[in-house]
Specification:
Methane Monooxygenase Hydroxylase, Chain G, domain 1, rod-shaped
Length: about 80
Amino acid sequence: MLTTLLKDTLGGNSKTIMLCNISPSNVDRAATIDTLQFASMAGNIRNQVGEIKAVERALSRYYLMKFATVTAEYFFTYEEVR
């Protein structure tokens, strides 16, 4: 479950460091194995960065156009009121 929650934050162009606390004690053997399995699964996560960048570019263009439209409307309104 935790691997699924962290999937978007692991991988991609970022550098991620994972620290795992393991124990040499036989009492903590199951927890150590679970921790190492989680670290292995998390290390195998790969993201598709290209798709994210394309969406970001499209949104940037959209909001830039929106900003230009609102700015132009403001100035035209300002000139009419004057």
